[in-house]
Amino acid sequence: MRKLWLLLGICSLSLQLNAQKAMTSQDSIKVFYDKLLPLLKSDYVYKKEVDWKTVSSETNQNLKKYNDFKSSLKETEVLFGKIKATHCKVIYKDKVYGVTLKASAENLSQQWKDKYATKPGFEVKVLDGKVGYIMMPGIKSLDFSQENTHKTAQSMYDQIAEIKAKNKLQGWIIDLRLNTGGNSAPMLLALYDFLGDNDIWGTVDVNKKQKSKVRLEKGKYLDNSKKTSHITPSGELLDQAKVAVITGQLTASSGEVTALAFKGRPNTIFIGEKTFGMTTANVNVELPFSTVLILSVALDTDRNGIYYDPIIPDIAVSKQDNFNDLLADKNVQEAISFISKK
Question: Which long-range contacts (CB under 8 A, 24 or more apart) does 119-128 make?
Answer without folding.
Answer: 120/178, 122/156, 122/159, 122/190, 124/156, 124/159, 124/160, 124/163, 125/163, 126/163, 126/167, 126/169, 127/173, 127/326, 127/327, 127/332, 127/336, 128/327, 128/336
